[in-house]
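Input sequence (93 aa), recorded before submission:
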Amino acid sequence: MVVRLTGYIDVPLERLEAVRAALPEHTRLTLAEQGCLSFEVVECATPVGRFDVRESFTTPQAFKAHQLRGSKSAWAVVTKDIPRHYSIEGLEE
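Predicted structure, token format:
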């Protein structure tokens, strides 16, 4: 079952440049993960600091592996304590 995550993250203005700088490497690493079908984080024009997030993985296991890797990455440090507003479909095993 394909797992799809959609939603957004609102980055505080004082952290915006750090998040922008870290995003390309986070994207590269995610797209290289086994089971990643797509991964897109796009900065919105408004509100300032909002990034739309869309990702999909082949299985719940692949998605969970992504979450684990991401939690130990430079991206996790840069985005620590920034609330996520996500909806996840397909985690039922």
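Checked by second reader. The longest helix spans residues 16-31.
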